[in-house]
Amino acid sequence: MSIHPAGVQSREAALVAQVADGDERALGELYDRCGGMAFSLAFAIVGEHADAEEVVADAFAQIWRSASGFDPARGSVVAWLGTIVRTRALDLVRSRKRRARVLEEAAVVTDAGETLVLAPTAESPDRGAEVTEASALVRKSLAELPPPQRRVIELAYFGGLSQSEISALLSEPLGTVKTRMRAGMEKLRQALRPLLEAGA
Amino acid sequence: MSDHAWLEHAAPYALGALDENERASFEAHLSTCDVCTAEVRELRNVAGLLATAAPDVAPPPRLRERILADARAVRPISTTPTDASAATTSPAREHRGVSRFPSGRGALIPWLAAAAAVAFAAYFGQQYRGERHQRLAAQQALASARAAIDSTTTAVARRDSVIALLTAPDVQTVTVSGSGPSPSARYFLDRRASRIVIAANSLPPAASGRTYQLWGIQTGRAPVSLGTFNTDSSGRALTTLPIPVGLRIAVTAVTDEPSGGSSQPTTTPFLAATWKSE
Predict the structure, then answer these.
(1) Mutate which of B23, B37, B67 to test chain A, going by most A C-beta atoms within 10 A?
(2) Helices marked H in chain B — which ranges?
(3) Between A and B, how many residue pairs show a Cβ–Cβ distance under 8 A?
(4) Separation CA B53–CA B60 (nearest Å)
(5) Interface check B40 vs A, CB under 8 A
(6) ipTM computed for the complex
């Protein structure tokens, strides 16, 4: 899996174009390159293997039906696929009103006593070709955020919670949540600048 | 609010974390502010990268074969026109009042692909077929509707006890909206209770002697009328309609019909929504 700046033709973008023409083999290769990321994202949100499998199967079915809707000028395949998977996973969790429970179960308390939404990620040795410097940078950048900032961003992205909901969940003032979210996203933007700029 | 203050909404907006009222006002601002639009675009790319940060979990080996088997059962929506007439038809709305219903080639569109609103349009006529920009617009409308589902559910439930009742665990919700002042609707589908609620906005009342009619479509079947409704002078309607026994709705949409409704749609459908299977 590679992450390219908007507008740059990646192998994934070429595959999506072939998928739009009904090329099953291209769909298989797209899955081989991005399926692990898609499943990991779905699992992070829904918290169960069977549900994550449904989400990813639905997401690739949607891609198969409507790959012609992908516009490389608007972002990478990874961002597009991530949006599809995240939206479907959050829909599933919401439809079952399980969101709070999923988040509760997913919460991790670190040695330092900080509560995180996602467990700290060590690079797993068997992820193979999918692990790129790019996704490693994303994880590193997220891990380097102050935990309170990281937590509100993860609750929003992986939990689908609004700022008010996060404020209620954490019993923190809304203004504090807003400040942390802005500050954290600004730090991520700086840290991920190499991935965001064309030609990187 | 100063532009500086608006910029503070960009990060939570990119994460989908603004509350409904803030989101609506920020989106209105975005339509007039290039600075905030650029900020949102970049922060959305930042948020998009978070997709790669989830801890690794290996998918089951069978998932790959399942995806490919599913794909073999459904033909993707082609990007090329399927016949010459498709390229010369006029925009959809100009065909109101003209009957264009499935016969011949229209019926060839594979109904397995009906989960896409695009297929719905193709079923009803040739207006959309081959017209890539319209299909993309439909797909974008679907995508934005999906993104809006949660926040709209929350807002509506607060405002309206009828809908609050319908946000029970089994109720599915879809929001369909166009850009600018065009009509929008929220559908609430309760399959267990066999009813559907449509909350329409910015939809001018039907002309004298006309009404709006809601249709439910089961994959591979002709549309079934769910009933008629009309909007008030402010362009709003909130109507609960029963779903006929046994109808497994895959798509819903509205048409403009003569008073009393029609047995089959006679104008171009709009406010089309697709539904997950039961």
Answers:
(1) B67
(2) 3-7, 10-14, 20-30, 34-49, 62-73, 117-124, 132-159, 161-166
(3) 214
(4) 20
(5) no
(6) 0.82
CATH class of B3-53: mainly alpha
Look at B67 and A60 and tell me if their CB atoms are within 8 Å: yes
Yes or no, beta carbons of A156 and B18 under 8 Å apart? no
Domain ranges of chain A: 1-98, 107-200
pLDDT of residue B135: 54
Query: What value does the mean pLDDT of chain A take?
Result: 80
**Parts of chain B belonging to CATH 1.10.10.1320:** 3-53
- Distance from B58 to chain A by nearest Cα, in Å? 6
Q: Do B136 and A69 touch (CB under 8 A)?
A: yes
Task: Encode chain A (200 residues) as per-residue pLDDT tens digits.
Answer: 555 544 445 788 899 999 998 899 999 999 999 999 999 999 988 888 999 999 999 999 999 988 888 887 777 788 889 999 999 998 888 776 555 455 555 555 555 555 555 554 444 434 433 346 678 899 999 999 999 999 999 999 988 889 998 898 888 999 999 999 999 999 999 999 988 874 33
* Interface check A178 vs B, CB under 8 A: yes
Classify domain A107-200 by CATH number.
Answer: 1.10.10.10
> In the structure, how many helices (H) and strands (E) does chain B have?
8, 8
Tens-place pLDDT, residues B10-64: 999 999 999 888 999 999 999 899 999 999 988 988 998 999 898 889 999 999 9
Q: What is the CATH class of A1-98?
A: mainly alpha
Q: Which of B141, B77, B84, B65 is nearest to B113 (CA)?
A: B77
